[in-house]
TrEMBL record:
Functional description taken from the UniProt entry: The light-harvesting complex (LHC) functions as a light receptor, it captures and delivers excitation energy to photosystems with which it is closely associated. Energy is transferred from the carotenoid and chlorophyll C (or B) to chlorophyll A and the photosynthetic reaction centers where it is used to synthesize ATP and reducing power.
Signal peptide range: 1-15
Molecular function in Gene Ontology: chlorophyll binding
Keywords: Chlorophyll, Chloroplast, Chromophore, Light-harvesting polypeptide, Photosynthesis, Plastid, Signal
An individual GO BP term: photosynthesis, light harvesting
Cellular localization per UniProt: Plastid, Chloroplast
Sites where the protein binds chlorophyll a: E73, H76, L115, E177, N180, R182, Q194
Protein name: Plastid light harvesting protein
Entry GO terms, CC: chloroplast; light-harvesting complex; membrane
Organism of derivation: Helicotheca tamesis
UniProt family annotation: Belongs to the fucoxanthin chlorophyll protein family.
């Protein structure tokens, strides 16, 4: 009986002792620093992703699947690349079709409220919602059903940029898209802010 009690106490104590493997992993993590933020530890979940420089100061990758984060980053980057171009083009007078007289003189900033009143933004919201729903199915299959799909990959390459390219060349193209998308997210935030503050035409000075 005494031996059984003693064995159970040793077992309970061992449960609180750190394992050697975990300790070695922690020591490695502590020694590895982020390339982008050298004063912070390297976020291990970023490893293996194109464009990884260890930038995750809020450690989102610790509790959100990295594939989901990369999908979101690519989607927002692509939207902002189109949005910056569209925003500036409108303020430079580009129109897909002639506007009714009531809408002449609108800028990219003032057009939003005018189109909300007119009702066009409701239709835009509807079709974007349909597109988001369809893409969400693909994302869920990627995350939970191991579909083999890579984040942001919709098989869309009409010009053939990736055709007959090596893995290294494909990775280089993916990195270019990622960097341009990150720049576009900052650029679109800046151009909207400047346009609202100055209420003037491009280049909003």
């Amino acid at each position: 009986m005494k031996l059984a009690i003693l064995a159970s106490l040793f077992g309970a104590a061992a449960a609180f002792a750190p394992s050697t493997t975990q300790g070695a992993r922690s020591a490695t993590a502590l020694n590895e620093k982020s390339q982008a933020l050298p004063f912070l530890e390297y976020p291990e979940n970023l490893k293996g992703y194109v464009g990884d420089v260890g930038f995750d100061p809020f450690r989102f990758s610790d509790f959100v699947p990295m594939d989901f984060l990369r999908e979101a980053e690519l989607k927002h980057g692509r939207i902002c690349m189109l949005a910056w171009l569209g925003f500036v083009a409108v303020d430079n007078g580009f129109r897909i079709f002639p506007l009714p007289e009531a809408y002449e003189g609108l800028t990219a900033v003032t057009a939003h409220d005018a189109l909300v009143k007119q009702g066009a933004m409701g239709q835009l919201f509807l079709w974007i919602g349909v597109a988001e729903t369809i893409s969400t199915v693909a994302v869920m299959q990627m995350l939970y059903e191991d579909s083999g799909r890579k984040p942001g990959d919709f098989g869309l390459d009409p010009v053939g940029f990736l055709k007959n390219k090596s893995d290294a060349e494909i990775e280089r193209m993916q990195l270019r898209e990622l960097k341009n998308g990150r720049l576009a997210m900052l650029a679109f935030s800046g151009v909207v802010t400047q346009a609202v503050l100055t209420q003037g035409p491009f280049p909003y000075v």
